[in-house]
Amino acid sequence: MEMNFAVQLILLLGLSLLAIPVCVLLVQAMAAIIAQHHATRLRVQRPRIAVLMPAHNEAGGIVEVITSVRAQLEPGDRLLVVADNCSDNTAELARRAGAQVTERFHDQKRGKGYALDHGMAHLAADVPEVVIIVDADCIPEAGALDMVARAAAHSGRPVQALYLMYSPAGAGPMRKIAEFAWLVKNLVRPLGFQHLGLPCQLMGTGMAFPWKLISKAELATGHIVEDMKLGVDLAREGRAPLFCPEALVYSYFPSSEAGSRTQRTRWEHGHMSVILTQVPRLLAAGVGAGNGALLGLALDLCVPPLALLVLLCAGALAVSLLAWAVFSLWAPAFVAALLVLAIGVSIVAAWMQYGRKVISFGELMMAALYVLGKLPLYLKFLVNRQVEWVRSKRDTE
């Protein structure tokens, strides 16, 4: 009897922890379905902006990105490219395309955070009102820079554009599933929280900051998900990021398996590290201070990558069913089944409202193969996690 009680208690405690991210995802998906967002032009004077673009060996596509950015600039605005540790002609191409360029080389301090810090020091000689960070492989749609700049100037807070990644032409179902998972992470979830008046995470590109805010931020780090860290740091200061879904910035997943694997490892290992190191402290700080924005960001961050969450729920159900068979404990199996149902409802609801243009229902049903294919990445986190920033290989290389 005592053994049964102990096993049930342990299982229910573990399921309770797992229920937090599952419930957050469910709430976000349901809120996103009923959310109504319309592009509205803020009636505030357009601030003077500087677009800061970190670039490492981006010769293959930087001209197209610079062209799209320059088309949205007004007199007095600037576009500064930081050619960071480049071994190709990124800097030369950027100058020819009409951008201001500063080059940076350092053998040890490598990564996007150091490039951003270098660029901010360069911008300080002629201070803009708003800084917008755009990655050198991301294209902002027409009007995107104007919208996030006005929103940042009006709110005094960081503003995150909608950042989507598309599958390359001719991509198979696994890449389309990855595109759908990205859509859930970067559109459905932040849109749901926006509808509830809660902040979003920073996504690394399409981010606008008032100068007074970003100039004080700690950027010179080699953190592999520097955007998440920056969002957490600013939220602690009472400046949690706002979501601007009307402004779109987009890029493409690498076609090569090596590029995709590097990209996924950096993003997902970094996210899991943030969950372990930042979320407990953020939750405590949000509850202790009665800060809803901080608590909301902590809850959003606690949701792991979608494939991992599915794996955890499936594993919890399997263990709970085993406990039912061995110890006749039905309560954990019932709770685990509810969690599996909740995550299934969240995914299907997100697909019906936002994902049908990305992936067919038949392709979505192949997600089990996609989830199992991610298992080595998650096991690697346990034995040899990535802790340094590594750039993904581009298709042009």
Please provide a written account of the structure.
With 397 residues, the protein is of the alpha/beta class. Helix 1 crosses helix 6. The protein is built from 16 helices and eight strands. The chain has two domains: 2-36 and 286-294 and 297-384, no CATH class; 49-259, Spore Coat Polysaccharide Biosynthesis Protein SpsA, Chain A (Alpha-Beta Complex), CATH 3.90.550. Strand 2, helix 3 and strand 3 form a beta-alpha-beta unit. It has helices at 2-34, 62-70, 90-96, 112-123, 144-155, 173-195, 211-214, 226-236, 257-277, 279-289, 292-301, 306-327, 330-355, 361-364, 367-373, 375-384, and strands spanning 49-55, 78-84, 100-104, 130-133, 139-140, 159-166, 207-210, 242-252. It starts with a helix and ends in a 13-residue tail after the last helix. It is globular and about 75 Å long. The chain crosses the membrane at residues 282-299, 306-327, 333-352, 364-383. InterPro entries: Glycosyltransferase_2 (IPR050256), Nucleotide-diphossugar_trans (IPR029044). It comes from Herbaspirillum chlorophenolicum.
Distance between the termini: 63 Å
Q: What would you call the structural class? A: alpha/beta
Tally of DSSP helical segments: 16
Helical percentage: 55-70%
**What is the percentage of strand-forming residues?**
5-15%
Mean pLDDT, as a whole number? 91
Any guess at the CATH architecture of the largest domain? Alpha-Beta Complex
Total domain modules: 2
H/E topology pattern: HEHEHEHEEHEHEHHEHHHHHHHH
* CATH fold call of the largest domain: Spore Coat Polysaccharide Biosynthesis Protein SpsA, Chain A
Shape: globular
Strand order of the largest sheet: 3-2-1-4-7-6-8-5
Total number of strands: 8
Low-confidence stretches: none
Main sheet makeup? 8 strands, mixed
Radius of gyration: 22 Å
Broad CATH class of the largest domain: Alpha Beta
